[in-house]
Amino acid sequence: MGKELMSKLPKDNINKKEAEELKRALERFKVILRFSNIVLNTKNGKRMFNVVTKTWNPITGCTHLCRYCWAYKFVEMRLRKTSPKYRNGFKPALHEEEFNVKFNGGFVFVVDMGDMFCNGIPDRWIRKILNYIKKFPNTLFLLLTKNPIRYMDFLNEFPENVILGSTIETNRDNLYVKERISSAPLPSIRYKAMKEISWPMKFISIEPILDFDLEIFVKWIKDIEPFLIYVGYDNYNNRLPEPPVNKTLRLISILSEYALIIKRTIRPAWYERESITRYFYF
Ligand code: SF4
């Protein structure tokens, strides 16, 4: 991204389009600086592989039924029995007691135990959260959904300290359907919504990564203009249709020209690991 910005600076005469691009690049640079200042000034932030300093779950549950959802499994197999907060399992629920939590700086992931924009969450729950966030302007709040179309309904209400994020694991809708990955809106629908949304701090999570078409996927991400991207493989042995690791590394290398990349679990695809094991044992 720095290179992209610098290449535009030395020109004496720039046209309107170039001026617009330069303005946008500077805006993005300012966002990254702000993000870095807030996040790097925290204990966790110094470990850039995990910049989230806190999670906050005023809503839990989700209706998207992703086949790789660790939160669903954790809730249904353990928390439902042990925590009153999850007595209704993964059914969407609002937790009033969470509105006593105080924040002071850092980067807070809002609702990592569900999806606060899935169908089934009432607008008033979302508004309650957005209004609460407004009380902590020195903290950054990350919202993440697989239903970003719903962001459109709240564009005039988002506090300026929220990061609007969406998970887009692949560009391949057909793979998504064939492998029954999730009942969430298809990746292409999320892409179009995120591209359309005008917001200075956008985030894309490519996690768990699924196989993709390099050129198309890069174009999607560039069109969306996120300042921050997570990339990572599945951690829970779901045997998803993953890309080979070299392809993922290529994607990361290209995207790092445009945004801050946080590498999460990067490893050979499960079928690559199995073929390595076979090679050594037979
Ligand atoms: S959208 Fe997120 S919370 Fe909902 S089922 Fe999928 S992985 Fe789980």
Any overview of this molecule?
By secondary structure, the protein is α/β, with parallel strands linked by helices. The protein has a single domain (47-281), classed as TIM Barrel (Alpha-Beta Barrel), CATH 3.20.20. It is built from nine helices and nine strands. β4 (107-110), α4 (123-133) and β5 form a beta-alpha-beta unit. α7 runs parallel beside α8. The termini are far apart. The structure holds iron/sulfur cluster.
Tell me the layout of helices and strands.
Blueprint: H1 2-6, H2 16-40, E1 54-56, E2 59-60, H3 70-82, E3 93-94, E4 107-110, H4 123-133, E5 140-145, E6 162-167, H5 173-178, H6 187-196, E7 202-206, H7 214-224, E8 228-231, H8 245-255, E9 260-263, H9 270-281
Parallel strand pairs: 1-4, 4-5, 5-6, 6-7, 7-8, 8-9
Antiparallel strand pairs: 2-3
Helix pairs in contact: 6-7, 7-8
Iron/sulfur cluster binds at residues 62, 64-66, 69, 71-72, 114-115, 146, 182, 184.
Task: State the main characteristics.
7-stranded parallel sheet, two-stranded antiparallel sheet, 9 helices, globular, 37% helix, 282 residues, alpha/beta, 9 strands
